[in-house]
Amino acid sequence: VQLQACGGGLVQAGGSLRLSCAVSGRSITSLIAVAWFRQAPGKQRELVATISRDGSTDYADSVKGRFTISGDNAKNTVDLQMNTLKPEDTAVYYCSAKPGYLRGYDVWGQGTLVTVSS
Predict the structure, then answer these.
(1) Counting Cβ atoms within 10 Å, is residue 40 exposed (0-12), middle (13-18) or buried (19+)?
(2) What's residue 70's pLDDT?
(3) Are 23 and 35 in contact (CB under 8 A)?
(4) 24 Cβ partners below 8 Å, 6+ apart?
């Protein structure tokens, strides 16, 4: 399975962006879960949002109510809609997949940079 993330860019605080993770090699419904992580300069990578094969979702407290993760089975993509962006959301965002129950998030796409200006 391969992942390719896109959709990053520069946006003003309060604005919105939509990231998309294109999955190839396997259907997203065959994956245990897909997640979005982010890594800000000088900080550790953190989990932002996850979507499981049953459609359940989970979010970091810092993005709850602002970000929405969703899967599009027809396009085989997992998107992250980001609203009311804040400067502290600035980071490189990565999508990652958990292919099996005995594996962690060990398939990664390249990052896409999100910059939120104040």
Answers:
(1) middle
(2) 98
(3) no
(4) 1, 2, 3, 4, 76
